[in-house]
UniProtKB/TrEMBL annotation:
InterPro entries: EmrB-like, MFS, MFS_dom, MFS_trans_sf, Multi-R_MdtD. The chain crosses the membrane at residues 58-78, 90-109, 115-136, 148-170, 176-198, 210-227, 233-256, 268-288, 300-321, 342-361, 406-429, 441-464. This is Putative multidrug resistance protein MdtD. One of its GO terms (cellular component) is plasma membrane.
Length: 487
């Protein structure tokens, strides 16, 4: 019997997917893999990129921010584009843009060129995952959707596992350019299979809320750029204040635009659900803190501890293993303790673990570092999955899709804000000294980690407002915005 991802003994009457459907699913899986690999492989290479481009490694956060912010800005448009023009055309375009962006990144000769190339990559990445998820929904029977999603997201779970180590290996034994060049053959093959085999499913669409999209995009972009400020953009206080004011006015404008508009990009009736409001605010603040960790950890290990890129990448693996392994016990934990206790406890625990990590490293307890990073991954996963499910679980079906999209956008935006914030902290404590002595660089990192611990702990104040009688109501949910099956 030929293996396929949807073989179910309990449903013998269900038709088996054709060979072309198998290839289509593999294409979506490769898209997931490319997108998730890229979010982790770059972090380990930042010091080498800085050296090659003659930049301060403490100021390289714009390479991460430009990609993640672009994904956040473009996410709301991806589903509508797929419905309007067809999943084949949009997914094909997404792979091409991501691959082209990878090539441009590899050819960049300055930080500015690299940031612009990452924007191109981000446009492709923004469409790749949500459109891939929509593609699966259209090409397999609904009864097999969860099995199909488990199959196509499996490579996406492998990406973060191998990304840091692979990035470190390529940087150490080849050059940082190869962390982008490895996307080229996968992208070309994926684009060819998409064009030849994937049907171009479309759906009837309402008009796209262009006004709301522009207001949200301007609000997110200008506020993030304003936070970048003098260190990232080399602009004065007046321009920074102008960017921040523009962002606030744009977000206020969206509220005016959407409050009585049923066709708005995100319906404000979402916030009539208390758990959605609390969960979304907690997710925004919580992921700002969590978004700092993947950026800071390899940077600290290389600049603060003298690790090679490959060694620093290997040290990230225990954190990913802890994150992946914990997802199987979260249901029982939430059923026993409730959302409020799990979220507040995990938030405070993550703040404590993130502060223990540099202290253990600087104390010379090398063998304890993987253990601390493992527990960091465990606590982080507890919080992530609980936040996602709390936010979406009580929404009515008519608002579930919009709530899912808004949460996905907030997830990306908050990660961008997290990397921007830690870049500001590093620049603030490092000052204008270059290069820093070893004792000075240790002081910079310790001060930054202390501030990070405070930022990570703050969302506990939000999660303390979760009603104590909130029950899980099915932690395994198809509404989870990262598309992964929770069990």
């Amino acid at each position: 019997m030929q293996w396929h991802p949807f073989h179910h003994k309990t449903a013998p009457a269900e038709p088996r997917p054709s060979a072309s459907v198998h290839w289509q699913l593999w294409t979506v899986a490769f898209g997931f893999f490319m997108q998730t690999l890229d979010t982790t492989i770059v972090n380990t290479a930042l010091p080498s990129m800085a050296h090659s481009l003659k930049e301060n490694p403490l100021h390289m956060h714009s390479v991460i921010v430009s990609y993640v912010l672009t994904v956040a800005v473009m996410l709301p448009a991806s589903g509508w584009l797929a419905d309007r023009f067809g999943v084949k055309k949009v997914f094909f375009s997404a792979i091409l843009l991501f691959t082209l962006g990878s090539l441009l990144c590899a050819r960049a000769e300055s930080l500015q060129e690299l940031v612009l190339a990452r924007v191109v990559q981000g446009i492709g990445g923004a469409m790749m995952v949500p459109v891939g998820r929509l593609t699966v929904m259209k090409i397999v029977p609904r009864s097999q959707y969860m099995a199909a999603m488990a199959f196509v997201t499996m490579p996406g779970q492998v990406g973060p596992l191998i990304g840091p180590a692979l990035g470190g290996f390529l940087v150490q034994y080849a050059s940082w350019h190869w962390i982008f060049l490895i996307n080229l053959p996968v992208g070309v093959i994926g684009a060819l299979i998409t064009w030849l085999l994937m049907p171009n499913y479309k759906m009837e669409t309402r008009g796209f809320d262009i006004g709301g999209f522009v207001l949200l995009a301007v609000g997110m972009a200008t506020m993030t750029l304003g936070l970048e400020g003098r260190k990232g953009l080399n602009i004065g206080p007046i321009y920074i204040a102008g960017l921040m004011l523009t962002g606030l006015l744009a977000l206020f404008g969206y509220w005016l635009h959407a409050r009585r508009n049923e066709d708005a990009l995100f319906n404000l009736r979402l916030f009539d659900t208390p758990t959605f409001s609390i969960g979304l605010l907690g997710s925004l603040l919580g992921r700002i803190g969590s978004g700092m960790l993947p950026f800071m950890t390899p940077l600290f290990l290389q600049l603060g501890m003298g690790y090679t890129p490959f060694h620093a990448g290997l040290m990230m693996i225990p954190m990913v293993i802890g994150s992946m392994g914990t997802k199987r016990i979260i249901v029982r934990l939430v059923n026993r303790a409730g959302y409020r206790n799990v979220l507040t406890g995990a938030t405070l625990g993550l703040a404590a673990v993130s502060l223990v990590f540099p202290l253990v490293a600087l104390a010379g307890w090398t063998y304890a570092i993987p253990v601390v990073l493992f527990f960091q991954g465990v606590v982080n996963a507890m919080r992530f999955t609980s936040m996602n499910t709390l936010t979406l679980k009580d929404l009515p079906d008519s608002l579930a899709s919009g709530g899912n999209s808004l949460l996905s956008m907030v997830m990306q935006l908050s990660m961008s804000l997290g990397v921007t914030t830690v870049g500001i902290l590093l620049g603030l404590f490092a000052g204008t000294q270059a290069p820093l002595a070893t004792s000075d660089i240790h002081g910079v990192f310790i001060a930054t980690y202390l501030c990070m611990a405070v930022v990570i702990a703050l969302p506990a104040l939000v999660f303390a407002r979760v009603p104590p009688d909130t029950t899980p109501n099915g932690l395994l949910s198809q509404r989870d915005p990262d598309g992964q099956q929770r069990s």
